[in-house]
Amino acid sequence: MALAIKVENLSKYYRLGVINNGVLWKDLQSYVARVFGRDDPNIKIGNETVYDKTGFWALSGINMEIEQGDSIAIMGQNGAGKSTLLKILSRITAPTEGQFHIKGRLVSLLEVGTGFHNELTGRENIYMNGAILGMKRREVSCKLDEIIAFSEIDTHHIDTPVKRYSSGMYVRLGFAIAAHLDSEILISDEVLAVGDVGFRQKALDKMKNLCLNQGRTVLFVSHAIDMMKELCTKGFVLEHGKAVAAMCPIEEAVEQYNNMMGIVSTPPAP
Q1: Model confidence over 194-207: pLDDT tens digits?
Q2: How far is CA 161 from CA 121, 123, 204, 237, in A?
């Protein structure tokens, strides 16, 4: 199978705290330089790439290869770096070190309302997201009714600015757009936890259909182990920003995750 995503030695470093040069006007200089993407005039020569104790590595040395049509569970405790990894792959933030390659259109569901413009209506946001993916207006129009029907948003609300939507409506519309517009890779980060039980099962069935029948590549983050076992074929476990092991079948990944979390697996009843 051809590769959909290749990640090589990916790392992300975050600085914490406030700028502190000891002098207010130097702090302002550093802040303005950071806002406009310029070199900090107050960095000492030779210290441009020094990573000190004021920050932390959210990811460190991540390597993975994901084939087209794979459904991958990204697992780990809170703060393990799962969301950071997905944000880098979605090009929301840039890696500090390493590189990654993506083949195909990618659509992300990282949090409620990602990719929406609050002042636009639901219908207008559907067209905007299609345009972002490089689709023509007539292509989006062909899928419009299907998207609205799947989202379960009535005709009155679909033409209302999304800033008036509830979190559940955001999720339903966002997932419907991601699932029905033409893309080869779908990334989902815990967004289904916001929807109701009925829609979660409906979305899960749709994602299974995307993987099995349409060959869509899916990266899925959730703490719902049963859901990941049902949806995903492979797993990748993170701990403190580092890979616990190489990518493996989902059963092995779940076992690694349970061992890391100290969860004792209960054998099935006879």
Answers
A1: 667 788 888 888 88
A2: 4, 9, 27, 39
